[in-house]
């Protein structure tokens, strides 16, 4: 899933995901057929026969696995810039078999920019204007539909500091028939400022958020409400996070809600 997510992040071909399982079943069945043909040949040794029989059984089981119905979730992150959302979700996507969409990447894609490009946008202007942000979240919702519709859990990596946008994705999950979760990433503000400055110095990250953006987010964010808590899993990113345990928590919550 690391490779698949990297490819999708680079190419943006999320709309093709509903076809992926069909191709996986097809390729597994082709390899099973090849093994079956080999089993029917007369020049095969007993050891080769055992090997080919195992390959046949394994590929047949794999095709059966990919053809079974899935129970995908729709997971959104919540947290200020620099709170570790992308770091946490990178570990989760590999353990949950999920597809992640990063708002930083899709925002730039909508404006024809490369992932590593610096837009030179001002605070709440250009790529980060209200209009551009609304378009970005609309695209995230569309991609979430493609992912869940394809039978994969979707992780939407964005700040989601607006209650209006969180509610929109909760409604979307209901329309898709998918369990909904909010992954709330948080850490002390001094640490967030430190991480943002370190990220800027290191370079190589799609995010353009700086300390000024962080301060603006703090002033205008909608805190998670008591009404939203049933969908929230809180993650203190100032401490070492046990990704395996977090993935199990998420999986259990999803199974309970299915």
Describe this structure in words.
57% of the residues lie in helices and 10% in strands. It has 2 domains: 52 residues; 184 residues, P-loop containing nucleotide triphosphate hydrolases (Rossmann fold, 3-Layer(aba) Sandwich), CATH 3.40.50.300. The mean pLDDT is 92.
What topology emerges from the helices and strands here?
Layout: H1 2-11, H2 17-39, H3 46-67, E1 74-78, H4 85-96, E2 99-102, H5 103-110, H6 130-149, E3 154-157, H7 163-176, E4 180-186, H8 189-202, H9 211-220, E5 232-236, H10 243-257
Parallel strand pairs: 1-3, 1-4, 2-3, 4-5
Helix pairs in contact: 2-3, 4-10, 5-6, 6-7
In the CATH hierarchy, the architecture of the largest domain is: 3-Layer(aba) Sandwich
Which value, in Å, is the CA radius of gyration? 22 Å
Characterize the overall form.
Answer: elongated
Determine the N-to-C terminus distance. 23 Å
Order of helices and strands: HHHEHEHHEHEHHEH
* Number of DSSP-assigned strands: 5
Structural class: alpha/beta
């Amino acid at each position: 899933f690391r490779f698949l997510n990297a490819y999708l992040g680079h190419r943006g071909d999320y709309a093709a995901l509903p076809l992926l399982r069909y191709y996986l079943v097809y390729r597994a069945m082709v390899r099973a057929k090849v093994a079956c043909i080999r089993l029917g040949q007369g020049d095969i040794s007993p050891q080769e026969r055992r090997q080919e029989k195992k390959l046949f059984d394994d590929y047949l089981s794999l095709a059966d696995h990919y053809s079974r119905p899935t129970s995908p979730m729709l997971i959104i992150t919540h947290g200020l810039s620099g709170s570790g959302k992308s770091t946490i979700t990178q570990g989760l996507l590999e353990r949950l078999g999920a597809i992640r969409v990063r708002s930083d990447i899709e925002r730039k894609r909508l404006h024809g920019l490369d992932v590593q490009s610096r837009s030179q946008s001002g605070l709440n202007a250009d790529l980060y204007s209200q209009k551009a942000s609304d378009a970005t979240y609309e695209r995230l919702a569309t991609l979430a539909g493609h992912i869940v519709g394809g039978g994969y859990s979707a992780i939407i990596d964005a700040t989601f500091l607006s209650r209006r946008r969180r509610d929109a994705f909760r409604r979307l999950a209901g329309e898709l028939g998918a369990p909904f979760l909010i992954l709330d990433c948080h850490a002390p503000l001094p640490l967030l400022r430190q991480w943002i400055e370190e990220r800027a110095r290191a370079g190589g990250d799609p995010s353009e958020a700086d300390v000024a953006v962080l301060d603006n987010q703090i002033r205008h964010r909608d805190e998670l409400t008591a009404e939203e808590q049933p969908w929230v899993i809180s993650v203190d990113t100032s401490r070492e996070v046990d990704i395996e345990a977090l993935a199990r928590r998420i999986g259990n919550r999803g199974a309970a809600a299915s």
